[in-house]
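Re: the 525-residue chain
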Amino acid sequence: MNRQAMLKALEVQAGAVWDCCIIGGGATGLGVAVDAASRGFSTILLEQYDFAKGTSSRSTKLVHGGVRYLQQGNIKLVTEALHERGILHRNAPHLVKDQSFIVPNYKWWEGPYYGLGLKVYDWMSGRLGLGPSRILSREETLELAPTLDGEGLRGGVLYHDGQFDDARLAISLAMTAAEQGGVLLNYCKVDQLLKDKGRIIGVQATDRISGQQYTIKARSVINATGVFSDNVLQMDAPGSEHIIAPSQGVHIVLDKHFLPGEAAIMVPHTDDGRVLFAVPWHDKIIVGTTDTPVQEISAEPRAMTQEVDFILQQISRYLTKPPSRKDIRSVFAGLRPLVKGSSKKTAELSRDHLITVSASGLITVAGGKWTTYRRMAEDAVNTAINRSGLEDRPCQTSWLPIHGSSPAGETVSAPTDFHAPLYYYGNDVPAIRALVAADPLLGQLLHPRLSYIQAEIIWAAREELCMTVEDAMSRRTRALLLDAAAAIDCAPLVAELLARELGRDTVWQERQVEEFRELASHYLP
C-alpha cells in the first residue's frame, strides 16, 4: 500500500464517477471501504489526518459484547456484538485473541449474581464463544491475579472476551481494502460537498501534503467521520440538528508488575456507574475508562487531571500496591461518538449505530463501536445500494480474511503466539525479517524500553502510508501509548529513518521531532 500509487490511481480515474466515496478513515470508514471494494464497487476513502488518528486508536483494546449493556438489558446490542466478535476473531486471528477476565467478588451475593449473568453472556455467544465462564474460589482468584487485594475477597467469576490492537487492525483493514481494489488516502481533506440540483454528486478535496486539489465525482458519498459527523452534516445543510453527544474516555498505562499473569480485571461498578478494566496489552497494563461529557471536539483530546485521579482512585481499591502518578507510563484520551438520546448521562447513551440519509443523499453512519464495525459497514453499503442506484451485490465481509491472516480456504498451521515479536503483522512477518536480513542494523530496538525494531519504521513508510513521526510512534507502532517518555527519546531516530524512505531533508526531520515532542508531552502523567 503505497501513497504515490494511490494518488496515481486517483489521477487515472479523473473524470470518472466512483461508486462509493467515503469520508473518514477510522474503524467505520475503513470497514465501509473493505465492504464496498470487496463487493466490486469502485471505492475511494479520504481521511483528513491519519487512519485511526482519533477514537479508533484510543479504545480499551477490547472486542467484546459489552457486559455493561447486558446489565442495562440491551439484549439486541449484546447479541449482535458477540456475533461480530466471533467473526472478527475468525477473520483476523493474528490481531484478535481470547482474553480471560476476572470479576473479583467482595460481597456474598456477587458470585452467584455475576456468575449467572456471565452464563447468559456465554449462551448468547453461541458457537462463536471464546470459552465458558466459571466461578472461582478465593484461592483460584488470587492464583490468577496475585496482586488483587485479598482482604475481604470471597472469590471471583472468570469469563472470556476478545482483545486486540485497534490501530494495527485499522491499518490491516486499509491494506485489505487496497487489496480489494480500493483507493485510500490519509492526509486528504474534504473541503466541499459537490451538488447538482440539490443532490450530492461528489466532493472537493485537498491533499494536505502536496496541496493538490481534486474533484471526485461519486454515486454515493458516505459520512463516516465519527465524532466529526456533525461537521460534515453542517457542510451538507447548515443548521442541521446535531446527532453526536461526544464523551471522553481516558486510559492510563502501567507496568506489568501491577497485574502480572494473563488475566484481566473487570470492576463491574465504579463510582460513576461505568465498568473499569485493567487489561494486559503489549506487556503493559491498560486501566480505564472514564466517561466525561465534552463540548469541544478535538483531533487530539487531552486527559483532565480529575479523570486520571478517578482511575487511580478506583483501581487502587482492588490492588495490593496502589499505583500513583509516578507509575504511569502514558495517558491517552479518546472521544466516543455516542448517538444523542434522551439520557443526560453519556454512560447511558446507546452504542447502537445510526444510519441517516439527508435530503441531498448524503449517507451518515454514526455511533457503534469497534466490535460492530463490520456490521455498521455492511448496513452503510446496503443503504448506498438502496438509495444511490448501485447494483445489488451481496456482502462478502463475514468470511473475508483481513490482511495478515491466512487466505480463505487455507489452514492456519499454528495459533498466533501473542508473545512473539512482530506477531501483529501476521503473514507480513517474513517480509519484515527480510529487511533485517538485508540490513542487520534494522534489527536494533528503537529504545531499550520498547519492543519495536527499526525495520518496522521502514516497513511502515514503504507499505503502510506512514507519513510522520506521530504516525509511526502512535499507530504503526504503539510506542506513544505504551511509554510516552521512551517515544519522545527515540523520535530523532524515527525521523531519520522516515526521512530516508520518504526523501525528506534535515529541516523536515527537525520539525517532525519538535511537533512530536509537543504532542507527546500531553501523554505524560
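The longest strand covers residues 244-255.
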